[in-house]
Amino acid sequence: MTVPPVEAEMIGEIAGIVTYGWGMIPASVTIRGTTVTTSLWPKDGGYVVPIKKVLQHREGVAIGDVVEIALDIDA
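Above: the chain's sequence. Below: its structure in token form.
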């Protein structure tokens, strides 16, 4: 999943103070009732949100599903 452009721009504005290297941004991702920690990957001027297997399994998410996520940047 990729972060939409407007939100990616907002993340980009704080990336320099929250990154821990290689542009990776620490974050928490919530789908429905499950929250996991992860890192956003910079790609093509935006960010990729990896959806961990534990989150996929707990919430029944599969490739191609459209889901709403809550994304919190961990500073």
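DSSP finds two helices and four strands in the chain.
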